[in-house]
Amino acid sequence: MTLTAPAGTGAPPNPPPDKAAEAARPSAVRRAWATVSPYAYIAPFFTLFAAFGLFPLLYTAFVSLYRVELQTPGDMEWRGLGNYAALFTDEFFWISLRNTFTIGVLSTVPQLVMALGLAHLLNYKLRGRTFFRTAMLLPYATSVAAATLVFAQLFGRDFGLVNYALGLVGVGPVDWQTGTVASQIAVSTIVIWRWTGYNALIYLAGMQSIPSELYEAAEMDGASRWRQFLHVTLPGLRPTIVFTVVVSTIGATQLFGEPLLYEGSVSGGISHQYQTLGLYMYEQGWGFFHLGRAAAIAWVMFLLIVVLVGANALLARRRSRKEAGR
């Protein structure tokens, strides 16, 4: 028996059971969609990452355990760690590893120091600073092929503008392509030119996030601009500096376009004097057709990047803890 409210009380009658279930169903659907929808929104990213990031990484690790030739990619012969063993006994691998480290240091350290100085200048109220900030990105927007070909002409031994300028001050011509140190400096100069402005804008964005009250307080205490830079700007930029160091380290480890186009040789010069790991991998895979060996080099580069990034993060965390304990 269904009870109904007496007349005049104003209470609505109880709905039938089937209508109550229909009224509750939309709310259950909404709750389910609220739970599932965040995963649906990020699903395209993870799908693309799995297809173009994770799968190639895992498949490269799989191929590195086999002998695979470019002419016959379907014929795979199990080698286990043989490709890695052959890699570590190849002197050209160690030469390319050393070149990667030296070119990385020669390009990363001056690049970040110059970017920090330029960002500090652009942080002040200068006339036309919007133009200068925009101009900072022009080298980054330039094609790596065009930039490298122009710098290859500038560093020419006989008719290069750099040797001409050195001759004006009494320095003899430098062979920027066959000399080991000279060629590495030339390649590093291209990297510095392309990426200094990009890092400068990153530092500039970090500087503008530092509260102006800190600079005002330091100025009231009599601190010069140099003291403000050391004790206000640098501590406030520490996370940004760590980020640029990590990104520059990854870029230096994967350096490929500049040394390849500098002389147009995958061997990195006559005596492999500026061959990086990226060039060495390309030479093994598409020059000598050893895809298994190239896959092993790719995984060595990946593990090297993980170690370097982990070391940077560990040093940054240890420094932060030390300063927090003061």
UniProtKB/TrEMBL annotation:
It is a multi-pass membrane protein. This is ABC transporter permease. It is found in: Cell membrane. The chain crosses the membrane at residues 39-66, 103-124, 136-156, 176-195, 237-257, 296-316. One of its GO terms (biological process) is transmembrane transport. Belongs to the binding-protein-dependent transport system permease family. CDD domains: TM_PBP2 (cd06261). Pfam families: BPD_transp_1. Residues 1-22 are annotated as: Disordered. Keywords: Cell membrane, Membrane, Transmembrane, Transmembrane helix, Transport. Residues 97-310 form the ABC transmembrane type-1 domain. It comes from Streptomyces thermolilacinus SPC6. SUPFAM superfamilies: MetI-like (SSF161098).
